[in-house]
Amino acid sequence: MTEDLLTGPLRSLLVNHVCFSPDGQWIASASFDKSVKLSNGTAGESITTFHGHVGPVYQMSWSADGRLLLSGSKDSSLKVWDIRT
């Protein structure tokens, strides 16, 4: 699995930050390509990509229940993503 995460969908462009959801079910990555990518925490398979920032995404944080993901970008914006949608 480690090789897939390093060379697979999370590595399409340089990644700034990677974090597991509180329950370990999801992996989120913040990227220079202005996106947040969500992958399966067990298999490492890409699930979806969130777009909306106009600058590189530098940081992320999960809500305690793992339903929401907050991302912060160089564009000075914060976005809240509901991973259930």
From TrEMBL:
GO biological process: ribosomal large subunit assembly
SMART domains according to UniProt: WD40
Matching PROSITE patterns: WD_REPEATS_1, WD_REPEATS_2, WD_REPEATS_REGION
UniProt keyword terms in alphabetical order: Nucleus, Repeat, WD repeat
Domain of life: Eukaryota
InterPro entries named in the record: WD40/YVTN_repeat-like_dom_sf, WD40_repeat_CS, WD40_repeat_dom_sf, WD40_rpt
UniProt protein name: Uncharacterized protein
Provenance organism: Rubroshorea leprosula
Pfam families named in the record: WD40 (PF00400)
Subcellular location: Nucleus
Hydrolase in keyword set: no
CC annotations in GO: nucleolus
WD repeats: 50-85
